[in-house]
Amino acid sequence: MSQRVVAQGRLLVFALVSLALLVGCVPRYKWDGPPRQPLDVSLIEPVNPQPEPLSAYGNHSPYEVMGQTYEVLPTATGYRERGVASWYGRAFQGRPTSSGEPYDLYQLTAAHKSLPLPTYVEVTHLETGRSIVVRVNDRGPFKPGRIIDLSWAAAVKLGIDQAGTAPVEVRALTFEDAPYRAARPAKLPVWVQAGAFSEISNAERLHARLADAGIGPVRFEPPQHAKDPVWRVRLGPFETEALAVGIVERLLELGLVEAQYVYPK
């Protein structure tokens, strides 16, 4: 085979790879839309709000998307917000959501930037008064000005599938008499962060409180650099799920609801 043919072959491969990368970089929403078959709204199954343990995935806080940092709320209790709702459809069908569950556009689910996963919310269309209940199991929407991304079925049920967006009120549904259950760690080994503070005195107090309660091993971490002036109090590392979950449950009993898993880099 001549060098010219080999060179042409390499150029062809390079062109194909470059095209694939270019296509892959196009945001998925540009390919999105409803399913090709119409849906009988009466067949959409309503959700059954009930206490659930936090998802092992999707609750890490803070997290970063497209250079923007977001914080996950420690609890959904009292959450109520007004803003714009949108929806996402077949481009995401079957893909893993942030909670690890596959996205199903025919179910009443939603994506939210800061609510714990899962959370049940009531979404009310402010122009029509129509309301639906959905289960939040994904993260998003990350387009400015939007507060919730509904599944396609939820958008149909709420009557915004044609318009694409609508002004809504989102209200979290919580269960006051249900125990707060700890999530499972997503992987092992894992640290458990009991708290993070901008003032060293608060971190030192929590460190002493945990030591007095016999909870450990406790690790006190000073700020890593000037852009992150935070003192962190962590426990671990833990090699088993049972130990990690047990520590989080003890922290919850102490009222430390912001406890979270931290994974080694």
Structure description:
The strands form 3 sheets. Strands 3-7-4-6-5-8 form a 6-stranded mixed β-barrel. Strands 10-11-9-12 form a 4-stranded antiparallel beta sheet, with helices on one face. The chain has a two-stranded antiparallel ribbon with strand order 1-2. The longest helix is centred in the first third of the chain and has 23 residues, at 3-25. The chain is built from 4 helices and 12 strands. The chain is of the alpha+beta class. Residues 1-29 have low confidence and may be disordered.
Please, how many helices?
4
User: Which descriptor suits the 3D outline?
Assistant: elongated
Q: What is the fold named in CATH at topology level of the largest domain?
A: Barwin-like endoglucanases
- What's the number of structural domains? 2
> How are the strands of the largest sheet arranged?
3-7-4-6-5-8
Main β-sheet, in a few words?
6 strands, mixed, barrel
Top CATH class of the largest domain: Mainly Beta
What is the straight-line distance between the termini? 47 Å
Strand content: 25-35%
Indicate the mean pLDDT: 82
Q: How is the quaternary structure best described?
A: single chain
- Overall helicity: 10-25%
Question: How would you sum up this structure in a few lines?
Answer:
By secondary structure, the protein is an alpha+beta fold. The protein has helices at residues 3-25, 152-158, 200-212, 241-253, and strands spanning 63-65, 68-70, 80-88, 109-111, 119-125, 131-138, 146-151, 166-173, 190-197, 218-221, 231-238, 260-262.
